[in-house]
Design brief:
This protein is mainly alpha-helical. About 60% of the residues lie in helices and about 10% in strands.
Length: about 150
């Protein structure tokens, strides 16, 4: 006799996906007032910490394929937030950097990210939030998935 399959709500992954989707959808709404998508935010935020990055490094940090990232960079360039430059270490490569306008936008978007996080996780004391974050990072590392996370 076959064992009855476990129900979706019995799986932690099911609840993690629901939580991730809810947090991401709410954040997308907040970013919508700036006409920025969540993937674009990730690229802008990654670039904020660097003067310029080779395209291949941005690909690795934001975990998208190079073609998708190139199209996204084109859209960000059209908005005046990002620029492409020849990579000083390799003339065949391209480096990506924020423009002055893009650099000014990131703190505004980061404030929305902070508000979104507070809206979702304010029900947890700070100590529990820290433990939750550590647990997630531990699971990603344990499962060799940490390299696929923008925080890595």
């Amino acid at each position: 006799m076959l064992k009855k399959p476990s129900a979706l709500p019995d799986h932690l992954g099911y609840w993690l996906r629901k939580l991730s989707n809810a947090v991401s959808e709410a954040f997308a709404e907040r970013l919508g007032t700036f006409d920025v998508s969540v993937p674009q935010w990730v690229v802008l935020r990654v670039l904020f910490d660097h003067d310029a990055l080779p395209l291949k490094d941005v690909v690795a940090k934001v975990e998208v394929d190079q073609g998708s990232l190139s199209r996204m960079v084109d859209r960000l360039i059209a908005r005046g937030w990002v620029q492409r430059d020849a990579d000083s270490s390799d003339r065949r490569a391209v480096a990506i950097s924020l423009t002055k306008q893009g650099r000014a936008l990131v703190p505004k978007l980061a404030a929305e990210a902070d508000k979104n996080e507070e809206a979702f996780f304010s029900g947890l004391p700070l100590s529990e939030r820290g433990k939750f974050l550590q647990t997630i990072q531990k699971l990603l590392t344990q499962n060799k998935s940490d390299g696929r996370s923008p925080i890595a």
